[in-house]
Amino acid sequence: MIEVNITKEDIAFAREKLSKVKSTNTGLSKFGSENKRILTGYVGERIVMKYLDIANDSDTYNYDIIFKDKKLEIKTISCKFKPRPDYWCTVNSHDLAGVHKQEADFYVFLRVLNDYSKGWLLGYMPCKDFFDKGTFVPKGKDFGKFKFVKANATILPIHDLRAIETLKNQA
């Protein structure tokens, strides 16, 4: 896990992207269209772009960034403190039949403090491996102290991810 300081420029980048988003607060897609959640996601994208030295994002429905011909979907959530290795990385799915898998090669996971002062590059995982190794949790299921109320999800502990440095260094 790599800790990074978030700059004013990173937040400005995210706010600029957010200003171009059309609200879709209807139906199953409402979960992903909350402004704070979207802003956090864009901050995460910016962190990854800087870490991997990528000038431009792609930002399609199925992936956010292309790095060395690989499609990266960035998954960022906010937090109150530094995450522990046993915390989960989550990929939500609003597909009522089960799991919706985006057409990306890798998921890259981050956490960002609620005040946008720091973030953590947690690691990455090939999308197929994430679903093979992860635990599927159906919408509405109690899972320890958490209840997945908005969507089906697949979860995997941070310590099971691949180190982000190996993605950066791949040929």
Oligomer: single chain
Percent range for β-strand residues:
25-35%
User: What overall geometry do the principal axes of the alpha carbons give?
Assistant: globular
Q: Strand order, biggest sheet? A: 1-6-5-3-2
Order of helices and strands: EHHEEEEEHEEEEH
Percentage of residues in helical conformation: 25-40%
Output the radius of gyration: 15 Å
Q: How would you classify the helix and strand content by structural class?
A: alpha+beta
Describe the biggest sheet?
5 strands, mixed
How are the secondary structure elements laid out?
Blueprint (H helix, E strand, L loop, with lengths): L1 E4 L2 H12 L15 H18 L12 E3 L2 E10 L8 E6 L12 E8 L4 E9 H7 L1 E3 L4 E2 L2 E2 L4 E6 L6 H6 L2
Parallel strand pairs: 3-5
Antiparallel strand pairs: 1-6, 2-3, 4-10, 5-6, 7-10, 8-9
Describe the protein's architecture and organization:
The chain is an alpha+beta fold. It has one domain. 25% of the residues lie in helices and 31% in strands. It contains four helices and ten strands. The strands form three sheets. The protein has a five-stranded mixed β-sheet. Strands 4-10-7 form a three-stranded antiparallel β-sheet, covered by helices on one side. The chain is globular, with a radius of gyration of 15 Å. The protein starts with a strand and ends with a helix.
